Amino acid sequence: MIDRFLKATRRYEAWLRDQVPVREPALALKHVLMKRSASAFLRASFYWWLEDCATALPTLWTAPKLLAVGDLHADNFGTWHDENGNWAWGINDFDDAWVLPFTNDLIRLATSIRVMVSEAESSSDNKKSENRNKSEEKDSKIEISAEEICQYIIEGYRARLDECLSPITESWLNDRVKPKAAEKFWQKFPFLPECGDAMPGRARALLVEALPRDAANLRFASRDGGLGSLGRRRFVVTAETDSGRFAAEVKQRTPPAFPLNSEPGRDWQDLLPSRPYRIDPSLKFAGRWLVRAASPDRTKLRLGDLDSNDDRRCLIQAMGWETADFHLGRSDGGDNRCGGVTGEVLDRFMKEQPNDWLDRASAVMTDRTLAVQAAYARLS
Predict the structure, then answer these.
(1) With 225 labelled, which of 120, 334, 340, 347 sits at a CA distance of 20 to 30 A?
(2) What is the pLDDT of residues 40-90, one digit of tens each?
(3) CB atoms < 10 A from the CB of 11, how many?
(4) H/E element holding 343?
(5) Which letter does DSSP use for residue 136 in this model?
(6) What's the per-residue H, E or C state across 315-371?
(7) What's the CA angle centered on 135, arms 133 and 139, to 5 degrees?
(8) What single-letter DSSP state applies at residue 371?
(9) Closest CA to 157 of 367, 304, 357
(10) Residue 97, helix vs strand vs coil
(11) CA distances (Å), 96 to each of 45, 71, 124, 261, 298, in order?
(12) pTM of the prediction?
């Protein structure tokens, strides 16, 4: 498989350079990170996932198609404050949303959690062997089985199909979300390189539009971030306002879901029916640019951050619920370009599969991901 992966990577990166100016040092960094971690490998190689999943799971790849998140994984969820200042949590990255089998999102989400848990177990075992006499050493192992991961995802997904409420409430978030330390968050910005004339006028204009009216002391800089998007240009603006510091980021986007997307002139926003999925209110799509605010309260809530298995179960169920909410929010409006897929259609397809279909499918993709990443890490 490693030869197929390398060919897919060369093909993807040649396509990427045709689409946008590429920051080659950042692209090289992505490959370093992919060799260090299977989770990073999975997140950074969605182009390979699409090819490999269709090959490995042809039956599930014939599932009903709708507008899917595409590059869905456990780190693709985050927090923000809504228009009323309340905590919100949900999917926060739609760069590769496209018309795909709905099973893609469920299998990829389950695989990402399984890979993450596998790495946490390895890390925990290594720490134990290195620190046998340090009883205070915190155990990073996540006590959850692969079967439970898949069960919880399906439970959450079916709950949304049945029009039940999300298991995560604002009070649940209030008790568990820990915003990034403000000083630590803000101290990185002064060290980012100012971009000057190298910044495209469109990117600068979008950042200016995102600023509060009383913004002063503006500073524009470039930065690298993410994993799948490493190599694409990103710019940030920081400012002082009457209510405190403010930051916003703009990143360059490419057509989604390469290589399956045969319509590079179109984007997933072209497929939106009348009922949209709720998103961070600061998020704005402007052609091939995406703008969003940056602040300490926009953070991740990871399984390893939670102290109890009950909380982990709730979080995984909520991931399943949010996935279904995105699927239904894009398909129930009768959009023929998404096939008019309804919750009943999705539920019927799942009932036609073996009870453990997600466990089996994600086990296949987990094994394949770990094998290819290990082979890639051995390459010089």
Answers:
(1) 120
(2) 999 999 999 999 999 999 999 999 999 899 999 999 999 988 888 888 899
(3) 15
(4) helix 343-351
(5) T
(6) HHHHHHHHHHHHHHHHHCCCCHHHCCCCHHHHHHHHHCCCCCHHHHHHHHHHHHHHH
(7) 115
(8) H
(9) 357
(10) coil
(11) 12, 6, 33, 10, 21
(12) 0.91
